[in-house]
Amino acid sequence: MSERTEKLVIIGSGPAGLTAAIYGCRADLEPLVFMGTKYGGQLMLTSEVENFPGFPDPVLGPDLISRMKSQAERLGARLVQDDVVKVNFKSYPLEIHTAGGVTKALSVIIATGANPRRLDLQSEMRLMGKGVSNCAVCDAFFFRGKKVAVVGGGDTAMEEATFLTKFATSVQVIHRRSELRASAAMKKEALNNPKISFVWDSAVTDVLGEAKVRGVKVRNLKSGREGELEVDGLFVAIGYDPNTEIFRGQVELDAKGYVAIHNGTESSVPGVFVAGDVHDFRYRQAITAAADGCKALLDAEKFVKRKLEVTVAS
After folding, report:
1. Which residue is catalytic, options 57, 82, 83, 135?
2. What is the value of pTM for the model shown?
């Protein structure tokens, strides 16, 4: 894409990538951002955001991304809506491949995020942000005094269910098996919570409602019987998949497929830094992703400065 060697290329355009771009402009790194054709990350599927600092009134997820994008562009970031299809981090300068060609860079920030696993139901996506959610910490407040369901049986699902009991009147956990996969501590906490009940050996086959969730249709996987649960919200907590496929064999990944980090935000490759949910499977918040973007940029800035000083000296 570029004949020159870029100081900084950012791959990804959620809160992590766009924050890195904003700070990169102020550091005079002239960031080139490959946003991807599906840009903005999970906030693009989020309705009202009430917990991002600086917004006294709720802001829609896509509007928050739009403001970050406009701020980055105003400061001079070059935003390209191309997908990165391959990288070569085994040579230096680093290479980033898109349909438009090959870009070389002194430093790269990986901010490609992670995707929550879905139930693969049309109704699930139609009601996403209208009662369907993947994040209890983000959305539990909207279900104060209401009934909700959680799909899943692992630690994440138990964490979501337990957190939701602070707001909801009841939480029904729908699990495909007859026993939870969660750790002993998480399992014990959920099983002993009077607000949590369990629907075993079952799967959600449909989400009911037009403008908002009014219930879910559930099928028992052993008997085949179907029934409906009347709930106001559905939290899908069956895991996340980090967007790291193009980085396999190029940087170190952990056992779950997330990019491993060392010494702050560094990957296993010098000059390649990491920000956001592509490595963070614990917090997964817009504000922590933005913070990661800032930290990755500060680390990249120091790396590029050293490289440029060596070049001038030689």
Report:
1. 135
2. 0.86
